[in-house]
Amino acid sequence: MKNAKAALEEIVGAQNVIDDASVIESYSSDQSDAPRRRPHFVVRPKTAAEVQALVIWANETCTPLVAVSSGSPHFHGDTVPCRPESVIVDLSRMNTIKRIDRRNRIVVIEPGVTYAVLETALSAHGLRISQPLLPRANKSVVASLLERQPTTIPRFNFSLPEPLRNCGVVWGTGEIAFTGEAGNGQMNLEEQWKSGVAQVDPKGPNATDLMRLVTGAQGTMGIVVWASVKCELLPEAKRCVFVTGRRLAELVDFCYKIERIRLGDEVLCVNAAQLATMLQGSSAELTELRKFLPAWTVIIALAGAGLYPEQRVQVQELDLNCIAQQCGLAINQCLPRVSATAVQQALDRCSPEPYYKLKGKGAFEEIFFLTTLNKVPGFVETVIEIAAENNYDLSHLGIYIQPQHQGVTQHVEFSLPFDPADRIEAEKVRRIVAAASEALMQQGAYFSRPYGAWAEMVFNRDTQATRILRTVKQIVDPKNVLNPGKLCF
Rounded CA gap, 441 and 421, in Å? Predict the structure, then answer.
């Protein structure tokens, strides 16, 4: 261990190699039920060269590395070591915004840049990025995009990793590569900027699409040291409107119509429990608010940027009214005990502390997957039935439906809050999640981000994909030093 510590100190500096017991313990578990395992060290590199040196050292010593870039809490078990003597590579010191390019609407950032920091920096340039629903303020933007967390503006979602474009990656071999159009030139960002390359096109280098290897990979293929992210103009006019229904099936046709013509910016559908949780307030206030909210609400943010922003919003609202009338629905400017301004703020900001999903009872389990909109009501019925069979209070069950890929697919998410101090309730929720996950997979739900126990359930169903993934892993990380034990590795 002394030799290992000395080698790590030579790479990142003595002050950035940590073996303090309290710090080590904080990386040994998260909010999931992943088995607890203490890493040997936490290292905090500052540059891509230091990350590359760490990966080369890991190959020489066969030491597992687990990359972490977001602040706590963590929820999915992907940052908890699976192997003994692991080293946590904490990328939070790599927090430079390298470039903001308003002309090409691109920002180039390091993995330690968080949503709170990036939002402030971009707004000074009249820009924003499409972000997930109420991300944690200390959540790494790069980590969120690599793990394909759903973003809330489907018309800007041209592929599931959007708005992620190009990446600089240190593969498990220690080799470094640039993805997308950045991979077609010399591997020096400054020189590329001088020659007019803006790292916009995600395809490449050449005929390959290397970025696909690192998205959804839970850090098992490579460590990303920078990324380019597509930006959009900050709206100068914005207004939230709502369409409500007593049953989800009543809203499906309406959602299909507005998603097909890409109407609105943020578009999402939530049940009463999810909407109440999104809004600020204590646990008691959330319980009271749920009683008055509609069973289902489609939230549409109409926005205008550039020329004639107010007129853009007005035209969208007229179109929206026509579609609602065709579907026998009505557009609402507010909700019972909830203003449009409060909902708009929830869409625009990061989550306050504590993280919004923890407000209800202090802990939660969740199920999320991709599907098509017509199948969503059936999946909702399945989860409700299983939760009811296990005597779970359905008034706490949060359901969030987020159109992705310009409405082609839907991210469906169920949140089940529970009291972490109540062992019986905690076990009940975990039983529900396990049973519902199995039932949903049998119905055709696509678990594109298989964390924890989902990995075995997913990969056992697709032996061909598993074989291909393991072959690719052998190419880019032959000694299996990057986050071993995750996915099918």
Answer: 30
- The conformation of residue 204, written as its DSSP 8-state character, comes to B
- Would you call 7 exposed, middle or buried from its count of C-beta atoms within 10 A (0-12, 13-18, 19+)? middle
| Number of Cβ atoms within 10 Å of the Cβ of 394 | 12
**Phi, psi (5° rounding) for residue 209?**
-140, 70
Which DSSP letter does residue 28 get? S
CA-CA distances (angstroms) from residue 467 to 108, 212, 462, 489?
A: 34, 17, 9, 10
Residue of 295, 294, 259, 284 whose CA lies nearest to 411: 259
- pTM, rounded to two decimals: 0.95
Rounded to the nearest 10°, the torsion over CA 280, 285, 290, 291 is -150
CA neighbor of 344 nearest in space, from 237, 244, 232: 237
CB 81 within 8 A of CB 24: no
Q: What is the pLDDT of residue 469?
A: 95
| CB neighbour burial string for 341-364, b if at least 16 within 10 angstroms, e if fewer | ebbbebbbbbbeeebbbbbbbebb
pLDDT tens for 276-288 read 999 977 778 888 8
Q: What does the pLDDT read at residue 2?
A: 66
CB 440 within 8 A of CB 413: no
pLDDT in tens, 36-79: 999 999 999 999 999 999 999 999 999 999 999 999 999 999 99
Structure tokens at 373: 């909109």
Q: Is the peptide bond before 163 cis (omega within 30 degrees of 0)?
A: yes
Beta strands in 11-56 (DSSP E): 17-18, 41-43
| Domains along the chain with CATH numbers | 2-90 (3.30.43.10), 97-233 (3.30.465.10), 237-443 (3.40.462.10)
Kindly give the parts of the chain with pLDDT less than 50: none
Q: CB neighbours of 397 closer than 8 A, spacing ≥ 6?
A: 271, 273, 383, 384, 387, 414, 415, 416
Average pLDDT, the chain: 95
User: What is the Cα–Cα distance from 279 to 292, expressed in whole angstroms?
Assistant: 14
Strand order in the sheet with 398-404: 237-245, 296-304, 267-271, 398-404, 409-418, 363-371
**Cβ neighbours of 291 (radius 10 Å):** 11
| Distance (Å, whole) CA 70 – CA 112 | 7
How many other β-carbons are positioned within 10 Å of the β-carbon of residue 26?
Answer: 15
- Helix, strand, coil shares of the chain as percentages rounded to 5? 40, 20, 40
Closest-CA residue to 279 (of 294, 271, 269, 289): 289
**How far is C-alpha 238 from the chain's CA centre?**
24
Burial of 325: CB neighbours in 10 Å, binned 0-12, 13-18, 19+: exposed
Q: What is the pLDDT of residue 296?
A: 98
